[in-house]
Amino acid sequence: MLAIDIKFLPYIDLSFLSLNIVKFKVFLSAFNSH
């Protein structure tokens, strides 16, 4: 199980990072509209 976690960890980090980037872009666009 640990080996699987280590194997999939980069993908989880990458998807989490991209999700945060999307949130940040939405936040910036909402902030700029005001």
Folded structure, characterized:
It is a single chain. With 34 residues, the protein is mainly alpha-helical. Helix content is 94%, strand content 0%. The longest helix has 32 residues, at 2-33. The mean pLDDT is 81.
Quick structural overview:
The protein has 1 helix and no strands. By secondary structure, the protein is an all-alpha fold.
Helix share bin: over 70%
Which ranges are low-confidence, i.e. pLDDT below 50, for 5 or more consecutive residues? none
Rg, rounded, reads 15 Å
Sheet of most strands: none
Per DSSP E runs of 2 or more residues, the count of β-strands stands at: 0
Beta-strand content estimate: under 5%
Distance between the termini: 48 Å
Overall average residue pLDDT: 81
DSSP helical segment count:
1
Topology as H/E string? H
**Shape summary:** rod-shaped
Class by alpha and beta content: mainly alpha
Please give a handful of descriptors for the protein shown.
34 residues, mainly alpha, 94% helix
Topology readout:
Layout (H helix, E strand, L loop, with lengths): L1 H32 L1
